[in-house]
Amino acid sequence: xxxxxxHGRSKEAAEIFDSMTAKGHKPNIVSYxxxxxxxxxxxxxxxxxxxxxxxxxxxxxxxxxxxxxxxxAYAKCGMMDEAMLIFTEMQGQGVSPNxxxxxTVIAALCRMGRLADAMExxxxxxxxxxxxxxxxxxxLIQGCCIHGDLVKAKELVSEMMNKGIPRPNIxxxxxxxxYLCKEGKVVDAQVIFDLVTHLGERPNVIPFNSLIxxxxxxxxxxxxxxxxxxxxxxxxxxxxxxxxxxxxxxCKNGRIDDALALFREMPRKRIKADTITYGIxxxxxxxxxxxxxxxxxxxxxxxxxxTVSISTYNIILGGLCRNNYTGEAIALFxxxxxxxxxxxxxxxxxMINAMYKVxxxxxxxxxxxxxxxSGLAPNASxxxxxxxxxxxxxxxDEAGNIFLSMEKSGCPPNSRLLNxxxxxxxxxxxxxxxGDYLCKVDGKNISLEASTTSLMLSLFSTNGKYREDMKxxxxxxxxxxxxx
Length: 484
Fold this sequence. Notes:
This protein is mostly helical. Among the domains are: 169-233, no CATH class; 378-484, Serine Threonine Protein Phosphatase 5, Tetratricopeptide repeat. Helix content is 69%, strand content 0%. The chain contains 27 helices and no strands. The longest helix has 13 residues, at 10-22. The mean pLDDT is 89.
């Protein structure tokens, strides 16, 4: 049973459990604990509770381990009300929570951003005589860092050290710094980084790269360069990821000349440019309209023996199309096809869009039809491209059929696509059809964008030419009547 549960086969473990009872062997607390843990790990909450009730019905009292398993299973699923009910029931039965139980509850509350509740449980834990261990402190410190209570985080680190508990290491803090930077909270990440260095930890390249990425993300390139200087001063060697991050930051902030200067500096710093490096620079050049420079950079890439991936080809095909070199893009695409280059769905999306734009509709349709035969599946972008172009061409019914096939394929439309469809139909005066799509707006996963609402208000205003057509919309949208 233990082996099966360990390998995610709790249903088979349950068969052994049932055969054991059928043969007259009475399961003990260990048997129940093994199967309960198996169900909990696999998220089989109904089976878990049924087994727990059976256990209590057979007169076997739950211990701290059993209650901790139940609490952990609910907490993992974000069902904190149920978890806390079990926690209360546990105490009501005279079973004292141990450090594992408290750790499970505190970790779940921190994940949900309920720091006040987590601290309350932490204080309760100490008052009950249960000494917090390193995992408990780490949960709270991580929660405080991620949710902005950096003062409390510092207090907890000091408290740990005063109690002789080993403080979190650089790996732990690096993951927090990385998370905060990706969320755009680079100021908080910098405070954590400074705390780490204050504690005497020597950061490696990973947290430095995270900070550089964070500053690039918020457009503070000077700060990103400051981190690079600090990094070099601290004796930490920048790597290709460091430079790729800075190059990407420059390109996304429209500073292509600075990006090129940094790119040319790489060999002097003994940093070898890779496929990603060239992809970033080529993409940056295309975005600033430097098509010839981008093509030249691509030739340099091949001359230097750098691997050209499908992502690189996608950058080039997309860049050519964006800069009105669609004929050249189609020629390159056909050449790559003859070379048996394996395309991905992004490649086909770029080319379907390009072919529609230059009115090579039959070829675009053939490409769309060939997606499934090439072992790929259309994604949300594929459907969005095809549906919007068909609508703009006036092929409303054909677009509707594609939309239905999208829903059936398990690729549900997102809010952006649905709003785009509604706006195109409204602008074309297809009010009834727009109403069909408005019915799909639920206010949760899909809601009206401001631009869609604004268009509807202008169309259905008192003097609008579609004033009477408003009655054709779903009832919940007739409040847009400008006269009311």
